[in-house]
Write a sequence for this structure.
């Protein structure tokens, strides 16, 4: 069976980066694992709105690919929070787990808000509550797939390049994976709320203010995640 195009595009970038140990590969390897698990769940019929969820997955990925192209080609339109994450990916003194979370922060806390808005804005005003809840239920089910993916990411991606993660895993068992899963779940809860605010804002200045607020908050999280004082206070990154 041919590999899905979205995974092929990810593999091309990862293959280009890994020989030179480009830190951008840390997030993308994680994202590829998650995308593969999402496609597997779609194939087994895990979502009520499979067509919508599949569209969400691919549209979401396009935000990442566009940000990456803007960064590498130095073209306009690169979100500030992505510039921060991409710059940090190859900076000394930033641990692999931080580089990973910086990418996750930019993609979830900024890109995902815009992705949901793109997919729902046409139908949202007249969408019945039960239909909205159906989409939201599928959106929340993704949290379970994220939770199932985190252990693989830690074992296969982070521990080989950050041996201290193995010590953390030995000491804490599955508590560390649970904490990261809960953090991302909290972020995704806020994303849905922000997407609803953006949908209600309509067009023009109100929409621009919501987008600016979303990106500013994501940037503040990024600044906290990249700080020298590690681990952070949970309030810094919520």
């Amino acid at each position: 069976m041919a590999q899905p195009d979205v995974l092929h595009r990810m593999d091309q970038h990862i293959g280009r980066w890994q020989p030179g140990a480009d830190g951008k590969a840390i997030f993308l390897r994680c994202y590829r694992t998650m995308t593969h698990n999402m496609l597997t769940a779609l194939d087994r019929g895990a979502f009520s709105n499979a067509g919508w969820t599949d569209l969400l997955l691919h549209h979401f990925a396009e935000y990442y690919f566009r940000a990456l192209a803007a960064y590498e080609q130095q073209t306009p339109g690169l979100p500030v929070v992505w510039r921060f994450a991409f710059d940090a990916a190859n900076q000394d003194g930033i641990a692999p787990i931080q580089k990973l979370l910086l990418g996750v922060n930019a993609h979830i806390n900024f890109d995902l808000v815009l992705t949901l808005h793109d997919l729902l804005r046409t139908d949202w005003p007249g969408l019945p509550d039960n239909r909205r809840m159906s989409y939201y239920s599928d959106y929340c089910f993704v949290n379970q797939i994220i939770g199932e993916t985190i252990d693989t990411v830690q074992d296969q991606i982070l521990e080989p390049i950050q041996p201290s993660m193995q010590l953390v895993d030995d000491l804490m068992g599955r508590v560390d994976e649970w904490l990261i899963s809960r953090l991302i779940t909290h972020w995704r809860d806020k994303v849905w709320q922000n997407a609803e605010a953006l949908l209600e804002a309509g067009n023009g200045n109100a929409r621009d203010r919501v987008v600016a607020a979303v990106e500013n908050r994501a940037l503040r999280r990024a600044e906290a995640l990249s700080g020298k004082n590690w681990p952070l206070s949970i309030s810094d990154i919520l």
